[in-house]
Amino acid sequence: NPTPEALEAYRATAARFDPPVRPRVVYNGVRRPEPARPPLHVRPGRRTIGLVGNICPRKGQYDVLPALERVLELRPDIDVVFAGRVSGAIGLVLSERAATSAGRIRMLGFVPDIADHLATLSLVLVPSRSEGFGRVAVEAMRAGTPILATRVEGLIEGLSGLRDPWLPDDRARWAERIVRALNTLARRARIDSSAR
């Protein structure tokens, strides 16, 4: 919510117009995804969890790593991809884990037009500590890919219309929540295929 000072500034600006106008928020837009070239190379017959964003503390990739490792233990049909510039200590840790994961964790680095690839993922995780707008979450929604995210700033507003897109506040419960989302997706796929 805006501070009282910000509201007063808005009112002062609006009052200069004749007739006075009411300020409104204009959101960033996202374009319709296009067929990705080259493809993201998700492995056939497997479900892939994607995390998109430069590797840094604010994006939460290191925070979600223990949960992802637990998910990989529980679900041998799952892979994880990290798309974004890899750097720093967190990038080193993630790269080391990827190197010892038998291909189940992959570091893709920067992927141009990543929004075009999101539909190939089974689930997009946005475990950010802070997020101004949450463009990846909005692009995943646009692509029709399920999302799980932390309840922070722009993600709260951007995902408010979805049914339970949230990772729990307790990080120890993240793996359980991710597995529950994957199980729901698998159930839906079975229902869809039996309905055909």
Descriptive notes:
With 196 residues, this protein is an alpha/beta fold. It is 38% helix and 12% strand. It has 6 helices and 5 strands, in the order H-E-H-E-H-E-E-H-E-H-H. Strands 3-2-1-4-5 form a 5-stranded parallel β-sheet, sandwiched between helices. Helix 4 links the parallel strand 4 and strand 5. Helix 2 packs across helix 6.
Structural class: alpha/beta
The helix/strand order is HEHEHEEHEHH
- Silhouette: globular
Count of individual beta strands: 5
Please give the alpha-carbon distance between the first and last residues: 47 Å
Rg on CA atoms, Å = 19 Å
Estimate what percentage of residues fall within beta strands.
5-15%
Low-confidence stretches: none
Oligomer: single chain
- Strand order in the largest sheet: 3-2-1-4-5
SS summary, helix count = 6
Helix % is 25-40%
**Main pleated-sheet profile:** 5 strands, parallel
